[in-house]
Amino acid sequence: MKTAFVFPGQGAQYIGMASDYLAARPDLLELLQSFDKQHGTELQKIMAEGPEESLKETRFTQPAILFHSYCALSILQDKLNLKPDFVAGHSLGEFTALVAAGVLSPLDAMHLVHKRGEFMIKANEGSPFAMAAIIGLDSEAVKAVCNEAEAVGLVRAVNFNTPIQTVISGSEQGVAKAMELAKAAGAKRALPLVVGGPFHTPMIQKASGWLAEEMKAISFSPANCPVVSNVDALPSTDPDEIRGKLELQIVSPVLWVDSVNYMISQGVTRFVEFGPQKVLSGMIKNIDKDIQCVSLDKMEELDAALELMS
Fold this sequence. Notes:
Blueprint: E1 2-7, H1 19-24, H2 29-39, H3 43-49, H4 52-55, H5 58-79, E2 86-89, H6 93-100, H7 106-122, E3 129-135, H8 139-149, E4 155-162, E5 165-171, H9 172-184, E6 189-193, H10 205-215, E7 227-228, E8 235-236, H11 239-249, H12 256-265, E9 268-274, H13 279-287, E10 292-296, H14 302-309
Parallel strand pairs: 1-2, 1-9, 2-7, 9-10
Antiparallel strand pairs: 3-5, 3-6, 4-5, 7-8
Helix pairs in contact: 2-7, 5-6, 5-7, 6-7, 7-10, 8-9, 10-11
């Protein structure tokens, strides 16, 4: 049986996340403390106590989710030394996947996603933007809707989450028009998303260059297992290739459906999700209902996960 480890992106955060993992492994707190010392932040306090407004800030959300996922991964590996056949992550989750594959150290990955979060907001300061989830239309129909809506403002299909759930992103006018057209085309729902910028579009192109500069100071090692990239749904182990794909990822669509289907085509029959909530497991089941999914959000799920994987 082949196994893939997968890691969620932004939107899965909650106050108190990782607290039970830290109770079980107090040594993991050192990573959080090192991050706060390096950046002059209070991420440890924000994760534990809030306020929620701070936790929702992209520059804090991203390292918080990465840290939670890393805790879950570390504790599972303590109990069961299972080597994945593939790793993949959704948007920021790709950085966590790189930690799992030995490409990045946990602290370097947290630093990069913290800066990535800052860059993604800064790159679009002043331009009205929006993102929305289109549910009930296939991806080709959503792309067609976006192409038509481009007449009033930039809008792109950016997260291909399931065969009938696609997130769009871009200018406020473009997204509003695409939502209207999607409903007219038969979408069941068009839901506005609360986000900090028009992520994965050319509107934040500057962030790509800034991240590339930031990554120059970070050591990337060869991956110890294939990392399936968001930008092309293909595996990489070469550190320079991985670095280049991360630079593109900020302004490119997240090809999650293609990524999951690629791993299934390579014989993966079990996906283990590490991190808050169970967002990716739900998506994967909507891509292929016969696939086994195991989720690790809280310590209480560990025994059930170990039983499934033993």
